[in-house]
Specification:
six-stranded mixed sheet; ABC_transporter-like_CS; single chain; four-stranded antiparallel sheet; 36% helix; Rossmann fold; Amino acid ABC transporter ATP-binding protein, PAAT family (TC 3.A.1.3.-); alpha/beta; 9 helices
């Protein structure tokens, strides 16, 4: 991880759904190459925060900057900024009528106008990277949950993002399939990808995160190194939350 200026800078971000305030003034910086893991109970606003960073939800107030550029629909570079942020969801969201390879190359061809032969070459390399080259012609219905999620990661990487967001990427998987997805994520982190990961996998957070953020009720209550958060949390809410989780 290098210590250059923030890759992502979030200032006083607020988001309402109706009268329900989901994000209550979030302030957060993520450096280039940093792995940030967000933990906290369900309903604390973690997924909504990721969706705001990706541009899938519009904040009601506050700002998000990506490499110093404001993420705003009025910014002429808005679509370019969005494309620089890859996102992997809990439930894969693969196209069921496309093979693994077709899922991976669809974005580069349709959005980035990449020549098909180049997209296929890149797609095959990415499937190899996630350990699924032998599944390139399989449809999602023939893949396990872990394999689908690894295809989803390859699909996000095919857009050549500078930032990867992971929204509880293993929570829908059978326990024995979780590690194969986490291993791909660890490899990405080792290569220096800037990552924000919402997860309940505390072992992954302890091993891979540069910084851990604890969210509850739409607020960041505590942030620090994994060592500090897991060994000596300051906020009573963090202590209570971690006390209910078996740290592996």
């Amino acid at each position: 991880m290098n210590n250059s200026a923030a890759m992502i800078s979030i200032n006083n971000l607020r988001k309402f759904f109706g009268t329900n305030e989901i994000l209550k003034g979030i302030n957060l910086d993520v450096k280039n190459g940093e792995v940030l893991v967000i933990i906290g109970p369900s309903g604390s606003g973690k997924s909504t925060l990721l969706r705001c960073i990706k541009g899938l939800e519009r904040p009601d107030s506050g700002t998000i900057y990506i490499e110093g550029q404001k993420l705003d629909e009025r910014n002429k570079n808005y679509r370019v900024l969005q494309q620089e942020i890859g996102m992997v969801f809990q439930h894969f969201n693969l196209f069921p009528h496309m093979t693994a390879l077709q899922n991976v190359i669809e974005g580069p061809i349709t959005v980035k106008k990449m020549p098909r032969d180049k997209a296929i070459e890149k797609g095959l390399n990415l499937l190899k990277k996630v350990g699924l080259l032998d599944k390139k012609d399989e449809y999602p219905s023939r893949l396990s949950g872990g394999q689908k999620q690894r295809v989803a990661i390859a699909r996000a990487l095919a857009m050549q993002p500078k930032i990867m967001l992971f929204d509880e990427p293993t929570s829908a998987l059978d326990p024995e399939l979780v590690q194969e997805v986490l291993n791909v994520m660890k490899e990405l982190a080792g290569e220096g990808m800037t990552m924000i990961v919402v997860t309940h996998e505390m072992g992954f957070a302890k091993e891979v995160a540069d910084k851990v953020v604890f969210m509850d009720d739409g607020m960041i209550l505590e942030e620090g190194s994994p060592n500090v958060i897991f060994s000596d949390p300051k906020h009573i809410r963090t202590r209570n939350f971690l006390g209910k989780i078996i740290l592996t």
